[in-house]
Structure to design on (608 residues):
């Protein structure tokens, strides 16, 4: 559904943007790269974010009354973090963040280092007979002077009296948002860590981030411990459908894997759980359901309505993750049942929805998640690609591990690139498959309909002796015991046809053509290894110049890191579902028509 957007203009910069109703002036400014000053994380307690609204006065909030003088309010000053936009608006910004600390993240993006976790060193006045404020009030008052609100739960309060007195009331308060996570003796403000997790169906990547410097302290990845329950999300959901115990089995498996990664991160960086206060977790919708022990069954059945797609902040002890027991796990939102928080994180990392350039972002996997657009309008969808790209249902297919052919070059001979270096090839993984088919097309071994030629068709071809038959099916021999059959080519054709259709449907909705595209981003663990030229030759992506096709690496993990380092960027991620339009492909009549149109491989004369 397309939402009415409102125009907001910031002076003296004369910069405008269009936002959904209800967006704050603070957040809308950040979208267009104007970081308004703040030290409280947009919570209405530091008073630094005030702007002067021109024209009709905005409603006055309680925070405005607390932070602003009456004459300021009368002159139109408001706290931009509290002021929500419900009509076109112009405002004056007196102060942007001065020389912000920043880190380069994602695709060379400069991200302001402003984490949700803050450490505040305080030297409190010890109580006296004349000052019998409770410990909590004493702490809250001191934090308020520094511009912070505080909510303290009982588990944290249990240690408060002892820590305060043993440390002579010189302590460091740790806040995640307004939640008090810990009170530590002395000044520990230099030690502040968080973990960014990309929980993939196959692989899980964890990065321990130093929240003070914005640098990664350690990175580890491992296979998702849910693998014995099935290779893809649908088989995991099928297992979960066996009942609550099965859901719990899957939950425990992924939590155990994450804790194994966490232990390795701590060991490598010499950091402990007591200094790691937050984890930002992204993943597809099914992975996040299973991590939280929530039944994912509705994701697999029409009308594909999951239990949740909103961002959730859950206590670490509730989830069972080995960070600080009073710390938090923050998930990012999803756009649809099959366009999850991993894609939202990818959009955050690549900045597609805030930039003027028109881009396609494709995460190639069992599902091809596709995002198309720019700052004006952005669409997202998921196209069911099947398992070919993961090397499944391919006769000699395998995952991208040692012995897998990952690159193919055909001339008058066959040259192979095999994972593990100088090892005997034992199968072919997704990127090798795409390369092989592209090269077979170029070599004239496949025609553009996808039909494989036989040795009799091309008797003088230098690779004619590679054309064989396996169980009565035409095949092309890549190495001893490793070949590609006609059926494998059809599987790949189906997979690329589905993704190409998704891209075409989005381009048609947006009314753009290939010539309008500035860049194509290939993301996800598989997309990053794809040869862009081969992706273009097989017609997986529109035929733009090859240097416009860019592998963006683990964009989901980058997005999680960005959301960990900057609460402003986290807010952008939270707002993406209201900014992006999710297009459901199932049931669209143009899907089938377009699929038939793009199923064949492109005629090679058109490929430059
Ligand atoms: S009051 Fe601190 S950001 Fe608005």
């Amino acid at each position: 559904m397309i939402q009415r957007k409102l125009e907001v203009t910031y002076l003296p910069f004369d910069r405008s943007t269009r936002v959904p109703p209800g967006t704050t002036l603070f957040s809308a400014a950040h979208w267009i790269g104007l970081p308004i000053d703040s030290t409280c994380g947009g919570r209405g307690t530091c008073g630094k974010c005030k702007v002067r609204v021109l024209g009709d006065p905005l409603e006055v909030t309680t925070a405005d009354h607390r932070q602003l003088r009456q004459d300021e309010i009368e002159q139109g000053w408001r706290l931009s973090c509290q002021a929500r936009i419900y009509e076109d608006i112009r405002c004056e910004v007196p102060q942007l963040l001065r020389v912000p600390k920043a880190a380069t993240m994602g695709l060379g993006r400069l991200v302001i280092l402003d984490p949700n976790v803050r450490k505040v060193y305080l030297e409190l006045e010890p109580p006296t007979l004349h000052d019998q404020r409770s410990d909590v009030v004493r702490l809250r008052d001191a934090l308020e002077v520094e511009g912070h609100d505080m909510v303290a739960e009982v588990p944290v309060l249990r240690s408060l009296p002892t820590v305060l007195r043993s440390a002579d009331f010189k302590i460091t308060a740790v806040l995640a948002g307004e939640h008090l996570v810990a009170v530590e003796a002395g000044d520990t403000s230099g030690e502040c860590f968080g973990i960014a997790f990309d929980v993939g169906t196959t692989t899980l990547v964890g990065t321990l981030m130093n929240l003070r410097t914005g640098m990664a302290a350690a990175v580890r990845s491992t296979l998702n411990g849910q693998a014995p329950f099935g290779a893809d999300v649908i088989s995991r959901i099928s297992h979960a459908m066996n009942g609550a115990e099965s859901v719990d089995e899957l939950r425990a498996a992924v939590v155990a894997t994450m804790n194994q990664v966490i232990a390795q991160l701590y060991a490598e960086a010499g950091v402990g759980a007591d200094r790691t206060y937050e984890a930002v977790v992204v993943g597809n919708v099914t992975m996040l359901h299973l991590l939280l022990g929530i039944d994912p069954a509705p994701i697999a059945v029409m009308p594909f309505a999951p239990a949740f797609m909103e961002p959730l902040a859950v206590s670490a002890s509730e989830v069972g993750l080995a960070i600080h027991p009073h710390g938090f796990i923050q998930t990012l939102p999803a756009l649809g049942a099959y366009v999850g928080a991993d894609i939202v994180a990818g959009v955050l990392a690549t900045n597609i929805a805030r930039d003027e350039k028109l881009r396609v972002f494709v995460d190639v996997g069992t599902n091809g998640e596709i995002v198309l657009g720019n700052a004006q309008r952005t669409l997202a969808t998921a196209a069911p690609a099947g398992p070919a790209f993961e090397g499944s249902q391919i006769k000699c297919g395998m995952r991208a591990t040692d012995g897998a052919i990952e690159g193919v070059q055909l001339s008058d001979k066959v040259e192979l690139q095999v994972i593990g270096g100088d090892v005997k090839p034992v199968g072919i993984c997704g990127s090798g498959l795409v390369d092989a088919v592209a090269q077979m097309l170029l070599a004239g071994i496949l025609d553009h309909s996808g039909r494989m030629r036989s040795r009799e068709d091309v008797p003088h071809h230098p690779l004619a002796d590679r054309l064989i038959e396996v169980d009565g099916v035409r095949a092309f021999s890549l190495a001893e015991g490793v070949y590609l059959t006609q059926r494998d080519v059809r599987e790949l054709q189906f997979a690329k046809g589905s993704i190409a259709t998704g891209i075409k449907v989005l381009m048609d909705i947006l009314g753009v053509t290939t010539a309008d595209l500035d860049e194509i981003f290939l993301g996800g663990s598989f997309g990053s290894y794809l040869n862009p030229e081969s992706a273009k030759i097989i017609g997986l992506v529109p035929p733009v110049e090859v240097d416009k096709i860019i592998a963006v690496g683990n964009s989901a993990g980058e997005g999680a890191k960005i959301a960990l380092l900057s609460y402003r960027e986290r807010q952008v991620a939270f707002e993406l579902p209201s900014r992006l339009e999710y297009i459901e492909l199932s049931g669209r009549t143009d899907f089938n028509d377009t699929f038939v149109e793009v199923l064949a491989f492109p005629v090679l004369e058109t490929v430059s």
Observations:
- The chain has 18 helices and 28 strands.
- The first helix runs from residue 25 to 31.
- Residues 38, 40, 42, 44-49, 67, 79, 81 surround FE2/S2 (inorganic) cluster (CB under 6 Å).
- The mean pLDDT is 92.
